[in-house]
Each structure stands twice: as C-alpha cells, then as structure tokens.
Amino acid sequence: MYPYKEQWPVINESAYIADNVVITGDVTIHEKASIWFNTVIRGDVAPTIIEKGVNVQDNSTLHQSPNNPLILKEGVTIGHQCVLHSCVIEKNALIGMGSIILDNAEIGEDAFIGAGSLVPPGKKIPPRTLALGRPAKVVRNLTSEDIAEMKRIREGYVEKGQYYKSLEKNV
Q: Which Pfam families match (predicted)?
C-alpha cells in the first residue's frame, strides 16, 4: 500500500489482498472483497470504490480519469488480466478474462462481458445480458443457468479469499 498525496487506501479488515498487489491513494475496499496476485489499483487521479464481495483476479489494472471514479458494486467478478478505467460495474456483473472496460462505460446488474471484450467509452450494457467482442455488443439475454454460474464463481472467490485471509493469521 502506498499513499498518494497523503491519501491512503482504506481497506476493510475482512478483505483479502494478495501479497504482491499494489494499491495507491484514494481506494476504498469493502468487506470480503478479494484482490488477487499482481493486480494494480491506482487511486491517484480519482476515487476507486470496491464494494462488498467483489473479486478482482490476477494481473488486473484499475485506474481512472480526472473527476471520473471507478466503481465496482457489490458482488462483481473481474476476471484475470482485465483493465478497468473510470467505469461503473453494477451489482453481480462478471467481466471476462482479458477484457477492457473504458471511461464512462456502465455494465448493468448481472451482466456478463465475454472474455477478451472491449467496452468502449460511454457504452452501456443492459442488465442480465451477454455482451462480447471488440467493440462489445449484446448477443443475448442471460439464462437462469448463466446467472447461477456467475453466482457460483462469485461465491467461490469469496470463499477462497476468506481462506487465504485466514492463512495470514498463521504466518
């Protein structure tokens, strides 16, 4: 953890932060969130807010533009090696591995962004839809099976994060 201009990250004590994560500045991480290996979260331009139960997987980068925060709502899953920049990801959405979500994009509640997608600036993805491609386009509504799988992934990461967090007490 590093401050930026005397602003330190605020991290809930129940959140799991892997050893080699870099977090700087105006970043708030809520309870039972998990931030995985080699992730960088820079809060040196605008705030980053990571709500309860969010998981940000390995090798992801989170940053912002001036006066334009990055907000990850409760239960969001960010897959491996994603780049998020000044966007809003609504509750329980899933961002697939290697995706890029740019300024002022909004990903709806329970939406799924397919792996390797690019969501351009200002794009709005509706709730409970699958969007993919470069640029990302909605291809269909999600099924109850899709939503159940997203929930399984989300809950698995909360469980894994809490397991790794428990190991910190034994070191």
A: Hexapep (PF00132)
Which CATH class for the 10-168 domain? mainly beta
- The structural domains of the chain, with segments of one domain joined by +, span 10-168
Q: What is the spatial distance between Cα 93 and Cα 55, in angstroms, rounded to a whole number? A: 11
Report the DSSP pairing between strands 129-133 and 136-141: antiparallel
Span 35-81, pLDDT tens digits: 999 999 999 999 999 999 999 999 999 999 999 999 999 999 999 99
pLDDT tens digits, one per residue of 79-97: 999 999 999 999 999 999 9
Is 66 exposed, middle or buried, given 0-12, 13-18 or 19+ CB atoms closer than 10 A?
exposed
